[in-house]
Specification:
The chain is mainly alpha-helical. The chain has 2 helices and no strands.
């Protein structure tokens, strides 16, 4: 799961759907872009089968807006 909040001072520059190399995800991209346009922070849960491009989709759509990204494993020693 990814936790994203919109920071108010970011200028919204939405992704051009024609320039992306993502196939079959126009609806998801549109939903993610609409969330950016809202005036309040939103919680986004992007879930599904493994190895289908969930993280890639988020990184491509929000590439100009991600300030901090964190991934981890539950109860693992480093």
């Amino acid at each position: 799961m990814l936790f994203l909040t919109k920071i108010q001072y970011f200028k919204l520059s939405l992704v051009n759907l024609n320039s992306m190399k993502i196939v079959g995800r126009k609806h998801e991209i549109k939903v993610f872009q609409e969330l950016l346009e809202k005036s309040t922070p939103e919680y986004v849960a992007n879930y599904g089968r493994r190895r289908v491009g969930k993280t890639y989709l988020i990184r491509e759509v929000y590439q100009k807006h991600i300030v901090f990204e964190f991934s981890g494993l539950h109860q693992k020693n480093m």
